[in-house]
Design goal:
This protein is of the alpha/beta class. It folds into two domains: 3-183, 3-Layer(aba) Sandwich (Rossmann fold); 188-252. The protein is built from seven helices and eight strands. It has helices at residues 19-31, 50-68, 82-96, 110-120, 133-145, 185-219, 224-252; strands spanning 8-12, 36-43, 71-72, 78-79, 99-106, 124-127, 151-156, 176-180. A six-stranded mixed beta sheet has the order 5-2-1-6-7-8, with helices on both faces. Strands 3-4 form a two-stranded antiparallel ribbon. Helix 2 packs across helix 3 (82-96) and helix 4 crosses helix 5.
């Protein structure tokens, strides 16, 4: 799935600067009809970082509002070009029409939280632009194992200026890119290996069940019970095989 088809955006937050998240929102809303945005802060142990995520979400929306008036916030506010301000005014209007939320996920439950979001919103992408490297590895690995390798990041292709000139609309959509970090060939191979590992045990179990049924049938050739066991076991084996194959293919593609 490309960013164009995204309907739900999950942004992992670790940086306190709003700029990276403003760029991520700008990229996604520039090309997608997003319906919801969730800011997620990962918490260690029993902490609850929902207040932190909410504060950052407020900071991001505030910055977009200030940009829409033609001003880049800072210790010394800087005026931006009218065309840039118009682009952020349009982004601000789009944000008014979508669902915005901020939540805290326990790091220990990261896999189950990701699985739940993917189950509820198949057309979801995850933004990891400002995520710490150790957390980025965890998120990426889990998404691959879940068969949903959709971790996007904003990156400048020019030397950073560390001011308004690094913003998406200030670059004119030229000196930046928003790419899926998990879209490479090696990731595809890893997904196929994961699917194969899930398929082989099921095939082995099906073979074992079928072998046991044959042995019972041979030992009790005239038993009605053996006939029933043979038919029931065969039906279960035949029915489970295509289901397992379908699930493995779905996980891969």
């Amino acid at each position: 799935m490309s960013v164009d088809s995204a309907r739900h955006l999950v942004i992992f937050v670790t940086s306190e600067r709003p700029d990276p998240y403003v760029n991520s929102l700008s990229c996604v809303f520039h090309s997608s009809a997003v319906e919801s945005v969730t800011f997620v802060s990962l918490a260690e142990n029993s902490e609850n970082n929902s207040a932190k995520a909410a504060a950052l979400m407020t900071s991001v929306t505030k910055m977009i509002a200030e940009l829409s008036t033609g001003e880049y916030p800072g210790d010394t506010p800087v005026s931006v070009a009218p065309e840039i301000a118009n682009s952020y005014e349009l982004l601000e209007k789009k944000l008014y029409r979508v669902s915005l939320s901020a939540v805290s996920w326990p790091r220990a439950d990261l896999a189950s939280c990701l699985r739940k979001v993917i189950h509820e919103h198949n057309q979801v992408i995850f933004d990891v632009t400002a995520l710490r490297k150790d957390l980025l590895v965890e998120v990426g690995t889990i998404l691959i194992s879940l068969g949903h390798p959709k971790a996007f990041t904003f990156e400048l292709t020019k030397s950073p200026s560390y001011d308004w000139r690094d913003l998406f609309y200030a670059t004119g959509n030229r000196d930046c890119k928003y790419e899926n970090l998990l879209a490479g060939t090696n990731v595809t191979k890893a997904l196929k290996r994961t699917a194969l590992r899930q398929l082989l045990p099921a095939l082995g179990l099906a073979f074992l069940i079928f072998t046991v049924i044959i042995v019972i049938k041979a030992a009790l050739p005239r038993s009605v019970y053996a006939d029933w066991i043979f038919m029931l076991g065969g039906a279960v084996t035949i029915a489970s095989f295509p289901i397992t194959v379908w699930h493995s293919i779905r996980q891969t593609f």
